[in-house]
What we know:
The complex is a heterodimer of chains A (296) and B (294).
Chain A: H1 3-23, E1 26-27, E2 35-36, H2 40-47, H3 52-83, H4 88-96, H5 103-113, H6 120-127, H7 142-152, H8 155-167, H9 170-178, H10 183-211, H11 215-225, H12 234-237, H13 248-258, H14 262-284
Antiparallel strand pairs in A: 1-2
Helix pairs in contact in A: 1-14, 3-7, 3-8, 3-10, 3-13, 5-11, 8-10, 10-14, 13-14
Chain B: H1 2-10, H2 25-53, H3 57-60, H4 73-81, H5 84-115, H6 121-133, H7 137-149, H8 157-160, H9 168-178, H10 183-191, H11 196-207, H12 209-225, H13 228-234, H14 243-253, H15 258-290
Helix pairs in contact in B: 1-12, 2-15, 4-15, 5-9, 5-12, 6-9, 9-12, 10-11, 12-15, 14-15
Amino acid sequence: MLAPALLGILVFFAYPLVASVFFSFTRYDLVSPPEWIGLRNYEYLFTKDPKVWSAALNTLWFIVFLTPIKIITALCVAGLLARARRAAGFWRTVFYLPSLVPPVASVVSFVFLFNPGTGPVNQILRFFGVDGPLWFNDPALAKPSLLLLGVWVMGDIMVIFLAALLDVPKEQYEAASLDGANGIQKVRFVTLPNIVPVLIFALVTGIIAALQYFTEAAVASGVASGKATVGSGTASMLGYPDGSLLTYTQWLYVRGFANYQLGYASALAVLLFVVAAVFLVFLLRRVDAFNPEGAK
Amino acid sequence: MTVTETRALVAPGSVNGGRRRGRPILAWIAEHTVLSVLAVMFIAPIVFVALTSLMSSDQTLTASLIPDPWEWSNYRDVLVSTPLARWFGNSALYAVAATAFMVLSSVPAAYVLAKIRIPYANVIFLIIIVAMLLPPQVTAVPVYIMWSKLGLTGTLWPLILPNLLGDAFSIFLLRQFFLTVPTDYLDAARVDGASEFGILIRVVVPMAKPGIAAAAIFLFFASWNDYYGPLLYASENPDWWPVSYALATFRGTHGTDWGSTMALTMLVLVPVVVVFFFAQRTFVEGITLSGVKG
């Protein structure tokens, strides 16, 4: 009964992982057979590739800002919801709903909402006498605009935090009250220690998600540039405006699947694997978290 | 984010009814004011999208935020000018086939990992977690080459067929549910001479229905929403575009104004939300029944 899954691991995981390393030492375009070129791909990656470092920096930007801001917002909203007594289900649905919106739809919506000419955001700003910025069309603001989108879809993390907050044993709060703890002390000494495992889980999976940040940035570039984006033509506007949204995984896509430099894309994939592995090892050392209480 | 998404749906149970009595009324007002303002900000984007989808093309170019008059012409234009039925058909094929294949392959695998003592079970489980968490781009090149050799690039099959051999995240999630099925029931069935497969079908599946439903809904949503997969495999072949991918290309190829883009956005958005509202009940009930915590 396990055999199909083992075969699946072999064919779609173990083999490709090893093969990626092999292809990273070759030049391969899918037409002529792979040609062994030793470390040339890596040499190019680290010394000559014109965009890989700006792409890596953009990805790093999302790791550094997107993940923590999402988590902090989610935690604050969850904290408020944990105190709401009536209509708690209603509030939860309101804040959870945006995270259900298909990512492409939510990005298209945000590019529209923030479009400089007729977008509702700038209309409202204009009403208050503020000249709205260019948002997704401004290289300096495109990433922060996606940050706002990230906050909008924080509902999935928020619901986890809410469950964790409601799971904190009430007796501990009562004991803390008896000991004369004030509100902040209760948060510091009762709430936080109880939800630390959930926080770490959200942080690490959030970082791994940010590491492969692709869809939101790619769709935002395509829609905001307003150009026809069909087939491999997609690659031409990735990063718009001015490369500010070009993330590492998009660059891998461009080199591998738009330019068919599959050997070089494999070298990029191996580097991505090494970085992802560091975070994975950190998470897996807490692998007990994957076993529900009471089982085993 | 797949992991957190699951836990998100696993988590919402009953919200407790407040733990302190007699809180000051001012605090209550302050909290609810903040909540209300935030709620308006979270709902506003969808409202603006809906309103714009009902504007005429002239209006979308003006400063007005409310349609006047209300027009359905954008929806009509989208229906007439695009192969909408094909897009939705492709999305449905992708999501339904992927989900059905996943259930066939991953339920037995998860059962073995959860309830049968086999050598190296922990190692296999660890590999599944790594496969689940590792960015898909790491293995994308060799997998793409395989499908290209098989002549299946330019279709959605490279995204559907692998589910016949198990989906790492689904196996992980199902295992977590199966762990909570009491082993006593299984032992009783074993004593009665049932085969492991018989136990799975007659004992475990009925008890873990909510878990299987959860895994199925997650994979269904993930496939329906997928952009990266169709971009990789089907972007050159419009006949195979699912609606999520088509929406991403829509403004560049059709949308001279925002109205029709917003109409298509609504058409993509509404079914998912409707499905969720119907599924939420079964879901939360099932999760409460099985007593699994995230």
